[in-house]
Amino acid sequence: MTTAEILNSIMSTGPVLEHGHVWLAGAGPGDPRYLTLEVVAALGQADIVVRDALVSDEVLKLAPQAEIVFAGKRGGKPSAVQDDITASLIDFARQGKKVLRLKGGDPFVFGRGGEEAEALVAAAIPFRVLPGMTSSLAALASAYIPVTMRGISRAITLATGHAAGTDDDVDWLALAKTNEPIVVYMGLKNIETITSLLMQGGRAPETPVAVIMSATTPQERIFIGQLQNIAEDAKREQFEAPALIVIGDIVSMRPRLGVADQ
After folding, report:
1. The predicted structure's pLDDT at residue 4
2. Count of the separate structural domains present in the chain
3. Does 127 lie in the same domain as 53?
4. Residues 98, 103, 133, 186: which is the catalytic one?
5. Can 52 be counted among the known catalytic residues?
């Protein structure tokens, strides 16, 4: 069998998206090459795709038959309300539509997928979860930064930074004391607060940091700096969301793997 025949065989034997069902799917970090075969198959079956802001137009070209409904949420910009998004999924399903809820990364990693799944259960709407490659792991691998590295990291923390400095914040002082790498989602606007708290918690000012913007896409940019300066560096270099902040000695592996920066 040819490669195309094998792929067609895999795609044709997968689950069928039925009328009145909702599939919660992850579109990976951005580039369509990182989609799973299951998500590609779902795109070809959907009547309606409810997409996030981080899902690229190139990905959506794989669903030419579907109505595309924008439900993006971006910090500091006009955004859809989560309750309204969830209600729309239920409404479309009750209309008998084949609904694909498409999110950047993985639906259960800072994607509110768990909340949407819970609401679908309460509404008695059948659903499935289609995993996607979470943006942090894909971004680090494509940037030649190993997530784990013997002698450098034994664990890694994925944290959201959108609430930094508020009562709903994570405990950055406690995370600092682990001395293990941290990958921060949605933290660019609060990068100064986050880095300051980490240094208060004991992280060395010279700790390597990478800021990865629009990972895996043609707009990707990467800046390597130190914890003490990265906030002003990112501002000077005009980095914008979506961006990941990678904090820890794993960042130092990038030049060791032959990548030259600045």
Report:
1. 83
2. 2
3. yes
4. 186
5. yes
